[in-house]
Task: inverse folding
């Protein structure tokens, strides 16, 4: 990696975070065997912190696809996470593929090994496993801590330990790609551990995030479409987005206001309630209780 490329990576590590992207890597997701929940949890984190999540992609355990997606997203977004493909088996190719994407070597991380020895216990099926004896099992474990490293930059900026109860590091490549495991519990735990490092880089350093107001309406979407179109035009300059969501099988639909200017959004509530004959709710189901079946379906559109 050239000095100019390394300098750009260092800049990405420190820059303010406005936009985010998420890459879910796994044949098992594309094949329907595994239901992805990591992207939804990441989206919630982005919303709560005020990061504008622009794209979520699900791609195969395929070197070319991983290389293309990570290069593109790293260039386009301030903060990128990947999920999956960092286990001990032959089809876990995320580290090596991302290393290849940015012309980096894979380096065994001694700190990760030390933590692995202290925290990870041998599986019952491996009673004779030893870190001191070469074996296929040991090689499989070491595969999980050989990380892409830019040797011209500080390792501590590229290998993050954000949770003392876990040996698993977050590998940071090209300054803004954060490689996380696909196991939902670990993904969420590491993401939460990363949060304190993100807060100083947000537009709002307190991480207050984006606000969402829900208004429940008994009116059909087609009946309120004209008003919502005009409303969307009016509030666009204030950075507020207007949404309309049908709730199939229910008597009421939902109108949303989403933005950062809470005071301005609050000033719109009464107007919106009147024009859609609705009421503000905390949860979509709070105003349920009337009509279902065909009557409810008639009100969707």
Result:
């Amino acid at each position: 990696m050239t000095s100019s490329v390394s300098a750009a990576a260092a800049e990405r590590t420190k820059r303010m975070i406005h936009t985010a992207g998420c890459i879910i890597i796994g044949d098992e997701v594309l094949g329907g065997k595994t239901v992805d929940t990591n992207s939804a949890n990441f989206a919630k984190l982005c919303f709560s912190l005020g990061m504008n999540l622009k794209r979520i992609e699900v791609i195969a355990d395929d070197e070319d696809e991983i290389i293309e997606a990570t290069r593109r997203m790293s260039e386009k977004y301030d903060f990128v996470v990947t999920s999956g493909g960092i286990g001990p088996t032959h089809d876990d190719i995320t580290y090596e593929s991302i290393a290849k994407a940015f012309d980096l070597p894979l380096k065994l991380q001694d700190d990760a090994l030390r933590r692995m020895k202290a925290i990870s216990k041998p599986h019952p099926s491996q009673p004779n496993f030893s870190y001191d004896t070469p074996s296929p099992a040991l090689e499989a474990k070491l595969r999980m801590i050989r990380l892409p490293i830019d040797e011209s930059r500080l390792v501590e900026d590229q290998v993050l330990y954000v949770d003392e109860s876990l040996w698993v590091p977050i590998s940071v490549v090209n300054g803004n790609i954060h490689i996380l495991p696909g196991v939902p519990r670990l993904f969420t735990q590491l993401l939460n551990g990363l949060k304190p490092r993100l807060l100083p880089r947000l537009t709002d350093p307190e991480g207050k995030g984006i606000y969402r107001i829900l208004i429940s309406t008994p009116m059909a979407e087609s009946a309120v479409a004209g008003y919502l179109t005009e409303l969307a035009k009016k509030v666009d300059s204030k950075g507020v987005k207007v949404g309309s969501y049908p709730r199939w099988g229910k008597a009421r639909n939902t109108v949303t206001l989403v933005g950062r200017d809470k005071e301005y959004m609050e000033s719109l509530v009464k107007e919106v309630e009147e024009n859609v004959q609705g009421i503000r709710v905390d949860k979509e189901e709070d105003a349920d209780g009337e009509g279902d079946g065909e009557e409810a379906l008639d009100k969707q559109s």
The mean pLDDT is 91. The radius of gyration is 23 Å. The first strand starts at residue 19 and ends at 25.
